[in-house]
């Protein structure tokens, strides 16, 4: 979830920060990383395609172009965007839970997780129904209901993906409170006994 795409990092494990029993083996981690990068790039590309189609529908004076554009947007949203989005989410979770980064140990990973869930939810419950209504109206010979709405959806999604990409590269904000607590526990003397680290 959520490198130049919203992919999980591949840096080596820092001392005292990993959970050895749960860490992915290198070949497995690399395979999941490839899946995550490809899915993330695909999600970004589909969103750019939606934006291009939305701009075409909003700026053209041709009713045929409007109908063709919104129908293509609905096809993207129904058959491509959600499966790719879920693949991005699942592969990101596997990488987070199977590496030293964890899911709730670092703020940038935690933010990416919730942003990914938010964008998937918006796609499923706002974008797809809105496009369905738009296609129905345009097919009935009505004008495009709201040119601003049809463009703003892809713009908001694209902004979220670019932001996730940026924080994937910069990894800002440091560990969460849970991450600091787990780090302190792993650095404690061995006499304190083993600690169980969860994501």
Describe what you observe in this structure.
With 199 residues, the chain is an all-alpha fold. Helices cover 69% and strands 0% of the residues.
Key terms for this structure?
199 residues, 69% helix, disordered N terminus
Mean pLDDT: 85
User: How far apart lie the N and C ends?
Assistant: 15 Å
Low-confidence sequence ranges: 2-21
Strand content: under 5%
Largest sheet: none
- Tell me the number of helical segments per DSSP (H or I, 4 or more residues long): 5
**Multimeric status of the protein:** single chain
Envelope shape: elongated
Number of DSSP-assigned strands = 0
Query: How do the SSEs run, as a string of H and E?
Result: HHHHH
The helix-and-strand class reads: mainly alpha
User: Helix coverage percent of residues?
Assistant: 55-70%
Radius of gyration: 21 Å
Give a short synopsis of this structure.
The protein is mainly α and 199 residues long.
Topology:
Elements lengths: L25 H34 L3 H35 L9 H33 L7 H24 L6 H11 L12
Helix pairs in contact: 1-2, 1-4, 2-3, 3-4
């Amino acid at each position: 979830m959520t490198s130049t795409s919203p992919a999980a990092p591949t840096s080596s494990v820092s001392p005292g920060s990993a959970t050895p029993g749960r860490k992915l083996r290198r070949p497995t981690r690399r395979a999941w990383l490839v899946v995550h990068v490809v899915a993330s790039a695909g999600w970004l590309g589909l969103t750019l395609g939606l934006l291009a189609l939305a701009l075409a529908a909003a700026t053209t004076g041709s009713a045929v172009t409007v109908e063709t554009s919104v129908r293509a947007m609905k096809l993207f949203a129904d058959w491509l965007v959600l499966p790719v989005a879920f693949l991005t989410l699942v592969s990101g979770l596997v990488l987070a839970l199977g590496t030293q980064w964890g899911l709730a140990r670092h703020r940038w990973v935690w933010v990416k997780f919730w942003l990914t869930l938010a964008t998937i939810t918006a796609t499923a419950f706002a974008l797809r129904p809105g496009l369905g209504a738009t296609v129905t109206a345009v097919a009935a010979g009505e004008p495009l209901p709201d040119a601003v709405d049809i463009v703003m959806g892809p713009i908001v999604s694209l902004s979220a993906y670019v932001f996730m990409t940026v924080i994937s590269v910069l990894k800002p904000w440091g560990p969460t409170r849970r991450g600091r607590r787990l780090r302190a526990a792993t650095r404690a003397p061995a006499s304190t006994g083993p600690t169980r680290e969860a994501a």
